[in-house]
Design brief:
single chain; about 400 residues; alpha/beta; Isopropylmalate Dehydrogenase; ten-stranded mixed β-sheet; two-stranded antiparallel sheet; binds NADP nicotinamide-adenine-dinucleotide phosphate; binds magnesium ion
């Protein structure tokens, strides 16, 4: 069988620990035998980040602007323990943070749904994709622990010296105050990333804030979304038959719980932090959660939502058997290959991505899975495979589908 051609490269960012081991195995077993894999390779493994003073992360991000599509392996975000383990020159920043800052993107997290791994919310039948605004609010706050009686004020001094002032509270005793902010530019980018991704996925977009209580701060989010929607997206949404739906955050939460899923839920920073953990847990497994960074300009970077699975890696180094789930990492690859195929009008590549995803899902639904899923599945007598047997089981099916 002739290998599938790729006219344009995509950006490949390698990573760390167990996911780096899976990365190679996925390429060797599931990609290179079938595709003339055309990637521009960047090694974001911690050793090479350290060697290049993290320049490689910046280079990989800029390459993503050039080629528009990237796939990334999970990477270590250094902490004190990693400083000694890897003998680091500096405690390098989180690669995901660096990439996001350069691409100005929003992260969308989507669960992979298979029969036999049932959501804890029984009416959820389709994925709920969460988009979290990743700038400002309580994550860039300033706080004061008020020691005793006094007056707290909110003051803005314009560049021209003009002053706006509000009293926050006249304290009679001790208490607390907090200052938070956001900027219109970031909210606008967030809104465009969400609208673009809804068009890309042909799914409804939900957004919610507490604008009835926060008549300026939260209302500003609501107004910016509505304004951009009306001016730039209304016609495109109508053409695809999808909807932009705004409601209050508490109403949104109630509706999400009663829904069957199948939409994108845009959240303010804190709501997204909290709700993404709830939704991920309710869908069953972190190992079945993918993540894509979408920039307002339409650059896409795909990855698994989980980390480098350090505990499994140490077992692997000792020569012990591991049963690490590679599905989210494989779906990062299929996401990137499908997007590459769509941008290049390469229908063969799009079709390959569909078949590889089907092979993953069918393997699990046939009862062959890694340990993390075997523990929670409703399928009787699942066959527990090790990390590499699982990838081979997917390959067996993929080969069969490609022959037909
Ligand atoms: P983790 O790698 O997500 O793993 C936490 C635990 O979740 C694992 O020990 C394992 O549980 C389970 N798990 C996660 N993915 C799995 C998979 N594919 N198959 C089976 N089980 C899986 O999180 P962590 O251990 O807290 O972080 C390790 C490193 O990853 C850190 O250095 C962190 O900086 C980095 N990280 C990177 C990213 C990223 O690049 N996007 C995201 C998060 C964390 P059991 O041990 O119980 O089997
Ligand atoms: Mg969280």
């Amino acid at each position: 069988m002739a290998k599938i051609k790729m006219t344009t490269p995509l950006v490949e960012m390698d990573g760390d620990e167990m996911t780096r081991i899976l990365w190679k195995s996925i390429k060797d077993e599931l990609l290179i035998p079938f595709i003339d894999l055309n990637t521009e390779y960047y090694d974001l493994g911690l050793e090479y980040r350290n060697e290049t003073d993290d320049q490689v992360t910046i280079d990989a991000s800029n390459a993503t602007k050039k080629y528009k599509v990237a796939v990334k392996c999970a990477t270590i975000t250094p902490n004190a323990a990693r400083m000694t383990e890897y003998n680091l020159k500096e405690m390098w920043k989180s690669p995901n943070g660096t990439i996001r800052a350069i691409l100005d993107g929003t992260v969308f997290r989507a669960p992979i749904i298979v029969k036999g791994i049932e959501p804890l919310v029984k009416n959820w039948k389709k994925p709920i994709v969460i988009a979290r605004h990743a700038y400002g609010d309580v994550y860039k706050n300033v706080e004061i622990k008020v020691p005793g009686a006094g007056k707290a004020e909110l003051v803005f001094t314009g560049e021209d010296g003009s002053i706006m002032k509000e009293t926050i509270h006249e304290f009679k005793g001790s208490g607390i105050i907090q200052g938070i902010h956001n900027v219109d530019k970031s909210i606008e980018s967030f809104a465009r990333s969400c609208f673009n991704y809804a068009l890309d996925q042909k799914k409804d977009l939900w957004f919610a804030t507490k604008d009835t209580i926060s008549k300026k701060y939260d209302h500003n989010f609501k107004d910016i979304f509505q304004d951009i929607y009306d001016k730039e997206y209304d016609a495109k949404f109508k053409e695809l038959g999808i909807e932009y739906f705004y409601t209050l955050i508490d109403d949104a939460v109630a509706r999400v719980m009663k829904s069957e899923g199948g939409y994108i839920w845009a959240c303010k920073n804190y709501d997204g932090d909290v709700m993404s953990d709830m939704v991920a847990t309710a869908f069953g497994s972190l190992a079945m959660m993918t993540s894509v960074l979408v920039s307002p300009e339409g650059y896409y970077e795909y990855e698994a939502a989980h980390g480098t699975v350090q505990r499994h890696y140490y077992k692997y180094l000792k020569g012990e058997t591991t049963s690490t789930n590679s599905v989210a990492t494989i779906f990062a690859w299929t996401g990137a290959l499908r997007k590459r195929g769509e941008l290049d009008n390469n229908s063969e590549l799009v079709h390959f991505a569909d078949l590889l995803e089907k092979a993953c899902i069918d393997t699990i639904e046939d009862g062959e899975m890694t340990k993390d899923l075997a523990i929670i599945t409703t399928i009787e007598n699942p066959k527990v495979l090790d990390s590499f047997e699982f990838i081979k089981a997917i390959r067996t099916r993929l080969e069969k589908y490609l022959q037909n």
